[in-house]
Amino acid sequence: MSKLRNVAIVGFAQAPIVAENPHRTAPEMLYPVVRQALANANVERKDIDYQCAGSSDYVDGRAFSFSQVMEVMGAWPPVQDSHVEMDAAWAAHLVWVKMQAEECDAAIVAGFGKVSEGSPMHVLNLQLDPFYHASLGLDHVSTSALQASAYMAKSGVDDAGLAQVAARNRAAGAKNPDTQLRQAVSAAELQKTPFVTSPLREGYLPPIGETATCLVLAAEGKAEKMCDRPVWIHGVDHRIEFQTIGARDLTSSASTKLAAKNAFEMAGVKGVNDAQVVELGSTTPAEELILRDALGLPSGLGGTSGGPVVNPSGSPLCANPLMNTGLLRLAEGFRQLSGRAGERGVAGAKRAVVHASGGHCLQQNIVWVLGTERRWT
Amino acid sequence: MSRAVAVVGVGQTHHNSKLPDVNVPEMVRIAVDRALLDAGLSHEDIDAIVLGKAPDPLEGIMQPEQYLAGALGAHMKPIIRVHTAGSVGCTTALTAATHVASGLYGRVLTVAFEKQSEGNAMWALSPNYAFTPPMVAGAGGFFAPYCRAYIMRSGAPSHIGAVVAANARENAARNEYAHLRDPMSVEDVLASPMLWDPIRFLETCPSSDGAIAIVMANEELAKKGPRKPAWLKAGATFTEPMYVPGRDQVSPLAGRTCAKFVYEKAGIKDPWNEIQVAEFYVPFSWYEPMWLENLGFAPLNEGWKAVDRGDQKFGRHLPVNPSGGVLNTNPIGASGMLRFGEAALQVMGRAGEHQVPGVKTALGHAYGGGAQYFSIAILGTEL
User: Fold this and answer.
1) CB contact under 8 A, A78 and B76
2) Where in B260-372 does DSSP place strands (E)?
3) DSSP state of B206
4) Smallest Cα distance from A282 to chain B, Å
5) Which terminus of chain B, N or C, has fewer Cβ atoms within 10 Å?
6) Residue A92: pLDDT band with limits 50, 70, 90
């Protein structure tokens, strides 16, 4: 791998993740978050030379939703700007590419989505093939349930296994003051919750939530001045698969596997076990197990067996604010490696592997490798 | 940009109010296949894909890059989806260029589309803004006051808009891919019904179905291609908020800033004399003189004089929109990339009947939102 530009995460802020914030519009939620992120990075808006947001018109229930946040992102006088209709984790990736092209040095990445103003079940149905999938009324829970069934049939993991994965995430979430569900619940209790769509129970699914997020990225030379402990990007790659659910093996994630291979190679690491922390964008226990397989992690069922700590944040099972979920994974990597993870901080963590996902059944995946030291010298 | 970026292939569908024989993936695939064919490449040669389109509610498919992954040949590749309102087509192309300039991707396929016949643009383009009464007037109702303000402050005579529209149609007649190509005189335009004063029916863009795809490559790979590429000399996107006290909606600062930025990068001091062809995003006729001023081709309030002299006609000093422009072809999300693509074709000398002779430098431009989002690319024959 040729030498790339060292780029670091130097600041992050988020709004509390809640089921519904009835008192604030999306821009109103985002404004204090942008200000806080800039303050955390010890800079003013004028010190930032690029901005990129990730959001969805359908989530917000209006066309051109992103144009509402120009005021609160500080786009006056006019600024260099872009927007992806994707989780803000991909906005962060675009900024990183932009920095590799030496087109910017310091950037803010914003995520927002006013989930409570719409119906996620109906909205996420519209991602699917309009002829063969969407018209069946499938939503993200039913497609995830098909995937979980397929995985259980293949792996032999049973209901108790899913409950165990969910319980571990809920226990982690109880130590994360920034997530939505903050009560530990035992596997036995989760296993008593009703099925939403079999085999997925209420206790195996994320709550509905909304927030706004802002991440600050900077290239070497600026990053050191913006953060006491910048977290450097060592490697990253993202890949998509065909959407057609019947045309791919739902029990594995080939795109995660390939993205991870490329990200590890860029980072100069052998594999996931070179990291002390792994944060996955898994929205069901089955997704976590599939992603663990793809990354080369043990299933974690039947007790931990050493290796990296997985999902210290509690994962999206404790908070899944659409369009922000992926960026929150990156934020967890930053918090863990920069000593900002409080009680849940993994002691001595020097490297983190972070994953985020888009679409139904892990269709699109991005894998980052982060580190406390610069990658390229 | 740290590394040189070239356009090595351009492909588009024929555009029409309804392409009833194709669905969205099929329509997009036609453009992709044509671009790859043009570049002498196949899907295996593509390292990443950048997709752009305007609001998802126009077709009713959310984040369609997921549904279209197969049609775009994106399986097991990186793909991202850009959305920056009307400017998105040009911004998407520039995002692909950034991917190449980063050195991470050798060849990038960029695609933009809209299938307006599958939705209702008037509805989708009438969003509710917080604390603002809904206008439900679509883009025309939104931009008409800006055009009216331009007329009042520049003193432009009322026939200018009709002259622009008739000229654009004359240009579109030379472009086999254009949506509207029937002959239309200035008198026809003036006789057409007033939709949103001062914008008449024939001064308004159509709703189109269509797609465009472009292949970009780094210097080494571009030079291996079958024919001469178009080099990206400079490109940038600038945005400003809707609500700024004293914001100039007629000649927005973001447009002026963006133009200044790309001219500096491309070493252009006098755009009127150093650029041989320009493709502006003109969805309503009056925007042609407005952009001539905003982008520095004419002094403030004098853009209409260039139109009145006919300086922007095909065969004259600075042909504007030789493709026929947005006024005659408007698959919204693709409209900005069509400007970029036409600029590239002009530079490559491959624009067919609408080729402007001797083009060395061309400009492609798009704007969007409430005249807030600006995207400009300068393409040239030399690296």
Assistant:
1) no
2) 277-279, 361-368
3) P
4) 18
5) C
6) very high
**Nearest CB to B240; choose among A4, A75, A126:** A75
pLDDT tens readout for residues A241-266: 999 998 899 999 999 999 999 999 99
**What does DSSP assign to residue B358?**
T
The reply to whether ipTM tops 0.85 is yes
Ramachandran bin of B324, using left for φ above 0, alpha for ψ from -120 to 50, beta for the remaining angles: left
pLDDT for residue A300 = 85
Q: Which two tokens stand for residue B55?
A: 């609001």
Find the mean pLDDT for residues A218-222: 98
Instruction: Give the per-residue pLDDT at A347.
Output: 95
pLDDT of residue A304: 62
**Domain A7-118+208-226 bears CATH identifier 3.40.47.10:** yes
- Select the residue of B2, B67, B240 nearest A70 (Cβ to Cβ): B240
Q: How far apart are CA B120 and CA B142, in angstroms?
A: 16
Nearest to B253 among A77, A81, A255 (CB): A77
The H-or-E segment that residue A84 falls in is: strand A79-84
Q: Is B249 on the interface with A (CB under 8 A)?
A: no
Q: What is the per-residue pLDDT across B304-322, written as a single tens digit (0 to 9) for each?
A: 999 999 999 999 999 999 9
The answer to whether residues B57 and B118 touch, using CB atoms and an 8 Å cutoff, is no
Q: A63 vs B57: CB contact, 8 Å cut-off?
A: yes
pTM of the model: 0.98
Give A210's DSSP letter. B
Task: Work out the number of other CB atoms within 10 angstroms of the CB of residue B305.
Answer: 16
pLDDT tens figures, B72-86: 999 999 999 999 999
Contact B62 A124 (CB under 8 A): yes
> Which pLDDT belongs to residue A1?
57
Cis peptide before A77 (omega within 30 of 0): yes
3 state SS of B324? coil
Answer whether B2 touches A (CB < 8 Å). yes
Tell me the nearest-neighbour CA distance from B184 into chain A, angstroms. 33
| Residue found by looking up tokens 């997985």 in the block | A310
Residue B155 has a CB neighbour count (10 Å cut-off) of 9
